[in-house]
Automatic annotation (TrEMBL), chain A:
The chain crosses the membrane at residues 6-26. It comes from Methylovulum psychrotolerans. This is ATP synthase subunit b. F-type ATPases have 2 components, F(1) - the catalytic core - and F(0) - the membrane proton channel. F(1) has five subunits: alpha(3), beta(3), gamma(1), delta(1), epsilon(1). F(0) has four main subunits: a(1), b(2) and c(10-14). The alpha and beta chains form an alternating ring which encloses part of the gamma chain. F(1) is attached to F(0) by a central stalk formed by the gamma and epsilon chains, while a peripheral stalk is formed by the delta and b chains. F-type ATPases have 2 components, F(1) - the catalytic core - and F(0) - the membrane proton channel. F(1) has five subunits: alpha(3), beta(3), gamma(1), delta(1), epsilon(1). F(0) has three main subunits: a(1), b(2) and c(10-14). The alpha and beta chains form an alternating ring which encloses part of the gamma chain. F(1) is attached to F(0) by a central stalk formed by the gamma and epsilon chains, while a peripheral stalk is formed by the delta and b chains. InterPro entries: ATP_synth_B-like_membr_sf (IPR028987), ATP_synth_b/b'su_bac/chlpt (IPR002146), ATP_synth_F0_bsu_bac (IPR005864), ATP_synthase_B_chain (IPR050059). GO terms for molecular function: proton-transporting ATP synthase activity, rotational mechanism; proton-transporting ATPase activity, rotational mechanism. The keyword Cell membrane applies. Signal peptide: none annotated. It is found in: Cell membrane; Endomembrane system.
TrEMBL record, chain B:
The chain crosses the membrane at residues 29-50, 90-108, 136-155, 199-220, 226-251. It comes from the Bacteria. SUPFAM superfamilies: F1F0 ATP synthase subunit A. Belongs to the ATPase A chain family. The keyword Membrane applies. It comes from Methylovulum psychrotolerans. This is ATP synthase subunit a. Its main location: membrane. The gene is atpB. InterPro entries: ATP_syn_F0_a_bact/chloroplast, ATP_synth_F0_asu, ATP_synth_F0_asu_AS, F0_ATP_A_sf.
């Protein structure tokens, strides 16, 4: 159990081992541990943040949806109003057109009636003349009795 | 060579033979080749394993070797952080080296006591003591290195004057200066001696019991050596742990300024 120079040799070996560990072994392994720890912490933080953001986005989406709903309701009511207006307008237009058509038809009818009256008047005058000829048995001079004919036809009108 | 071992025969001779180191040289300037060789090989093993792990170290998913190395690193780092509150680049790697190296030394204890000496004798080596921690030189080399570090850090942190004051003025004040100095010297010197002798004693005794078991008839041996080996797994880890923790504690004491 003698203490001898082995002690010195062992101390040198020990010093070398400690130096090597300190220089080449501890730092990289410890750094990788620290880095991983940081990564995990970052990942957890990111996950939390993501969740928060999701909640926020959900809230936002809800509010957007609400807005869209009210907007669409507005649009629909506006469109209905507009449609009613259009219907009213077209109704008015149709009424006016109809009235116009009726007026035109009435005017035409009157005109045609006038024409027919005129025609009939002349026809009647002619007939009266013929009838008078028959009755009188003599020829009536149309030129001579123009005044009478005119008078009669005027009375007929 | 260790002449005292040659004389005895039988059981005593067997025991002495197993506990004799392979020694060259005479007097103080002699070397225990087996201690030097095995501790260097084990140190190389430790360094090689950790270096491979460190070279491949990533912050991503670690491999098996890296996981194991990181587990030890975490373990040592926790111990250091628990008792040492300063900032030092040396202490944690030092503690890791001590823990792993002492563990590997002690682990040699679990090899069957005859196998490596037998291989040695086939190679023409007469004496082979395979457990470095059963050599006082090995345990004292480590504890004295730690002792030097304690002195070094005491002076570095507190200054020569501060360290001198701590040695002389505590615990009883300036009027009992010689007594204080004596107490402090005993306290400081007890650190390396207790560190070395604790490890040496545990492992020496453990090895001795393995050797004694090996002397029994072969059919009894497993019954005894198996539980003793299992118990020893605890012992070798515990001793390595104690050496490491005490080193950390001593060095943190050296760092504390009163």
């Amino acid at each position: 159990m003698s203490i001898n120079a082995t002690l010195i040799g062992q101390m040198i070996t020990f010093a070398l081992l400690v130096w090597f560990t300190m220089k080449y072994i501890w730092p990289p392994l410890f750094d990788s541990l620290e880095e991983r720890r940081k990564k995990i912490a970052e990942g957890l933080a990111a996950a939390e943040k993501g969740q928060e953001e999701m909640q926020l986005a959900e809230k936002k989406a809800k509010s957007y949806l609400k807005e869209a709903k009210t907007q669409s309701a507005e649009i629909v009511s506006l469109a209905q109003k507009r449609a009613n207006e259009i219907v009213e307008e077209s109704k008015d237009a149709a009424k006016k057109e109809g009235e116009r058509l009726v007026l035109a038809a009435r005017a035409q009818v009157e005109q045609e009636m006038q024409q027919a009256k005129d025609g009939l008047r002349q026809e009647v005058a002619k007939l009266a003349l013929i009838a008078a000829e028959q009755i009188l048995g003599a020829e009536i001079d149309a030129a001579k009795h123009q005044d009478i004919i005119n008078n009669v036809s005027n009375q007929l009108g | 060579m260790a002449t005292e071992a040659h004389a005895a025969e039988g059981a005593t001779g067997y025991i002495i033979h197993h506990l004799t180191a392979l020694r060259v040289g005479e007097g103080f300037w002699s070397l225990h080749l087996d201690t030097l060789f095995f501790s260097a090989v084990l140190g190389g093993l430790f360094v090689w394993f950790f270096k491979t792990a460190a070279d491949k170290a990533t912050a991503g998913v670690p491999g098996l070797a890296q996981s194991f190395a990181e587990m030890l690193i975490e373990f040592v780092d926790t111990q250091v952080k628990d008792s040492f509150h300063g900032h030092s680049k040396l202490i944690a790697p030092l503690a890791l080296t001590i823990f792993c190296w002492v563990f590997l030394w002690n682990f040699m204890d679990l090899f069957p006591v005859d196998i490596l000496p037998l291989i040695g004798s086939l190679m023409g080596i007469d004496y082979l003591r395979v457990v470095p921690s059963t050599d006082l030189n090995a345990t004292f080399a480590m504890s004295i290195s730690v002792f030097f570090l304690i002195i070094f850090y005491s002076i570095k942190i507190k200054g020569v004057w501060g360290f001198t004051k701590e040695l002389t003025l505590q615990p009883f004040g300036p009027w009992l200066l010689p007594f204080n100095l004596l107490l402090k010297l005993v306290e400081e010197l007890a650190k390396p001696i207790s560190l070395a002798l604790r490890l040496f004693g545990n492992l020496y005794a453990g090895e001795l019991i393995f050797i004694l078991i090996a002397l029994l008839p072969w059919y009894i041996q497993p019954v005894l050596s198996f539980p003793w080996a299992i118990f020893h797994i605890l012992i070798i880890t515990l001793q390595a742990f104690i050496f490491m923790v005490l080193t950390i504690v001593y060095l943190s004491m050296a760092h504390e300024d009163h």
